Amino acid sequence: MNIFLLNVVSGLSISIPALLILRRIKKIHSSFYPFAVLLWVGALNEILSFIMILTKQHNLVNSNVYVLMEFFIILFLFRNWNGWRVRTVAVLMAIGLAVWIADNFVLHSLSDNNSLFRLFYSLVTMLMAMGVLSVTILEERKSLFKNPTFLISLIFIIFYSFKAVYESFNLFQIGINSNFHYNLWLVLSIINLIANMGYTLAILCIQKKLPFTIRY
Length: 216
What we know:
By secondary structure, this protein is mostly helical. It contains eight helices and no strands. The longest helix is centred in the last third of the chain and has 28 residues, at 178-205. The chain starts with a helix and ends in an 11-residue tail after the last helix.
């Protein structure tokens, strides 16, 4: 399997958890609704990107818009899990929007492959997930691997930590050769594929009534 085909399969694999969560939407707790939106927005963006590539158009504009939408949706997911006030989410959204505007309109163009915002939101997502994960480990009395909050947070930490590494190399261009960049992209594609399969498992663990609630 070449790198392009792997990247396509990895990207479109998000349709599996997206379809599953749609099928189970009436059976899951409402706190996971942003996660359902996250999967569907991701799936639609991957389909759009695939179509644009097949028609020999670049997908950078829609990808740059998508990462901002993804960040906002993730904030609402963590708001549900953490019980944040609306003000907290608004402040984080404002900071993220400012970084996104600077990256896509001041420092670069919206049609460029921009990494500053991607690095920023990957680090923020990873830190938020680490906070939820640590509380879940301390509070959960049953199997952690049957807790969807734990599973999703763990996947976020693994995926976004490597994505932060990948984007940092893109941003700073630290004298890397094409082979090294190729290998980074390959590993990120594999991790993304595994993450989407992990999301599928997490969805199967979501219940209508949560057996666990994060308490601060």
